[in-house]
Amino acid sequence: MSAGQRQRVNIARALVLEPRLVILDETLSAVDPVEQSRLLALFEQLQVKHGLTYLYISHDLAMVRRVCTRIAVMYLGKMVEVADTSGTFYDPAHPYTRALLSAVPTLDANPYKPEECLLDGEPPSPIDIPPGCSFASRCPHAFARCRIETPLLREHKPGRLAACHLLDQEETTVAA
């Protein structure tokens, strides 16, 4: 069986249980672009027919941009930003999200200045994360508080969450 056929079998196995939520972890990473497109069309049909909600876990930002309505960006296993697709791609709040997007090849003019997004060094060990923000050692905007206090995931605009001390303001509220 091809990779696409195996994915279809796995989808059928999952749908037999009539779930309302389907978690797809790098589901399309092993298939070619034509097969990816076919599978995404199948997912859309199944979503309409069965009222499914999908949770995609992926490193493929082009696919994420195409199919997701809300995106959660994670760094070292923690959410650092949650926003709708437009907010994530056109107005990212967290420095890691900007760095991630600055590395994606695009035909559009890149709105991110390399000197503001370039990441130096290695990420900390996920086994021994230092105190404070896990991104502080690589963030070009980190300041003293970042190395001491872990930022909370907070709503900084309606429906937009980010875990970054740079966004702290009086009106910011802690996310539920």
TrEMBL record:
Keyword terms, alphabetized: ATP-binding, Nucleotide-binding, Transport
Protein origin, superkingdom: Bacteria
Listed GO MF terms: ATP binding; ATP hydrolysis activity
Places the protein is found: Cell inner membrane
Pfam families associated with the record: ABC_tran, oligo_HPY
Organism: Bradyrhizobium uaiense
Gene Ontology BP term (one): peptide transport
Keyword rRNA processing: no
Domain ABC transporter: 1-28
Protein name as catalogued: ABC transporter ATP-binding protein
Ranges for domain Oligopeptide/dipeptide ABC transporter C-terminal: 80-146
InterPro entries hit by this protein: ABC_transp_ATP-bind, ABC_transporter-like_ATP-bd, Oligopep_ABC_C, P-loop_NTPase
Principal localisation: membrane
Lineage, uppermost ranks: Bacteria, Pseudomonadati, Pseudomonadota, Alphaproteobacteria, Hyphomicrobiales
SUPFAM superfamilies in the cross-refs: P-loop containing nucleoside triphosphate hydrolases
